[in-house]
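Homework help board

Subject: predicted structure for assignment chain

Our instructor gave us this sequence and asked us to write out the predicted structure in token form, then describe one feature. I got the tokens but I'm not sure how to describe them. Can anyone check?
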Amino acid sequence: MEDSQYNNQNYRHKEPLGFGKTMLASAVGVIIAGAILSFIGFIIMIAMMVSMLNSVKSTDSVIVKNDTFLKLNLSGNIREAAASEIETVFAEVTPLSVEEILTALNSAKGDERIKGLYVKVESSDISWGIAEELRQAIDDFQSSGKPVLFYGESYSQPEYYLASVCDNVCLHPAGIVDFRGIGAQPMFYKDLFDKLGVHVDLIRPASCDYKTAGETYTMNHMSAANREQIRVYIRSIWDHVSNNIAQSRHLSLDAVNHAADNLTACMAEGAKQEGLVDRLCFENDVKELMDNEYNRKNTLSVAKYAKNCHQEGTDQIAIIYAEGNVMSGKGQGYGTGVYGDAIASALDKAAKNDKVKAIVLRVNSPGGAATASEVMTDAVIRAKKKKPVIISMSDLAASAGYEMSCMATKIVAQPTTITGSIGVFGTFPEVGTLLSKKLGITFDTVQTNANSTGMSLVRPLSPAARALMQKNVDDFYVTFTSRVAEGRHLDKSFVDSIARGRVWTGRDALQLGLVDTLGGLPLAIAIAADEAGLTNYRTVRYPAQKDIMSQLSQILNGNDDAEEHISLFGLLIGKRHLPQKSNDIESRIRRDLETLSKEPSVQARLPYYLICE
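My token output:
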């Protein structure tokens, strides 16, 4: 009897769980298993990352052998500053930088182990400003008597301009030289917006006819002012480029322009006959030329060689890179733009560091948020009170990019730099018609005050709200022109006459007093040394990059360090907000619409995207 009772009780304990309890248990099990697997995956990921980082660290040292040719592969985007070590781990292809190329070529010209330079171009996104910078560096390198050989299956115009400075320009026998002069084609959205029921209100000072960025959304053609300034600046760039090509290739200027006008140098045979290239050959022929004529025994990439270039000197010149659109805040990851607070912090810390005797601010920006522009300009003013601040302008230093520059000790620009654009504008999109008539979405309103919904996106600006925005842009324009007049020691009325949002090339800006001299980053560094009275010095990136393990720790810990913003997501997707890079129609449309929807309403930005073909 007892045994039977025991069995019945035992049987009851083994009854299956109800459906709800079973599901709950299963869910808990899945959650626990998922957590365990996620933890294991996280540990594996960390192990892989550490392994990759150790691999990177172990291959840092490079032995440079005698009779070595440096190899420079120009492909994709060429950025201003060298990528951090953590970026090189995640990037499929680490983008080359102007910083690395200049460092390598400056060191290699006096290095007896380096026999020459081989440059291969492969569909790079090189711009006129970067081409000018690298052209000067390559010309300086070959002045040491070392050969420079260029090879490409095709050359864009900036690529060819870079190649034209040397005496060994080689082209694939079926290759193309895109040599046809410069044209600009701004894009307009008004007709599209009219069809969609979108209205964009453009607000700018009355005198800023040349500040035409908002016209992208409010017109379907170039205004007279826009057409005038584009015509002037592309002519200025082409005059400089064509004259240099003629001089380097020992051609008449008429011959250069005849080839561009008639497309006679585009095909390989024509390029050879017109004197634009020296050889039609395959890359293997170029390699044999280096081996047989120049006794090449070894080849080393410019990027690897640059890592072995060390400078002597106790005093420091800090180089701060400001590349991309100007935005407020600290930043959201490497290479995402020019963040006002981050640049101001770098300037402040360089100014306070007694080892730093001068600062070079390298600017490559079309402008952006007016508030961020003011933050950086104020930081330049503070830094200049303690030590020289020299501006080095790259492709672009326009609008907010120029405001942050105008109060510096000296400004150095390339002849092809796009600068000026001293002005401000505001845009305000209204999408009420699109939502109501196209999508059937309507709105009603309740408000406590007369202008509670005066800046609503679903109806036009109220008169009071528009008047407020107008005053905002008018006041900022006065501030901007006053800063230029003070920083450049110019009369306010003269500044207003050359401002008004108008764009100038560096060559024209020199004549107007907006910049001090023409040249690249090496010249800016030399001027900084001279201003600080330095003879024995070295340049340092500022802020200094942390070591690779510290960067990894920052990613994992989510440390919000104003000096160095690292975003794991940004690294994985290679996020960039660099100006004027992609010329395809889809990219241009996406960029323009993102600008309208995401940028602050009041901007000091270049009045259009520079699509020069």
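Reply (TA_rk): Your tokens look well-formed. For the description, you could write something like this. Residues 9-13, 559-582, 608-613 have pLDDT under 50 and may be disordered. That's the kind of observation they're looking for.
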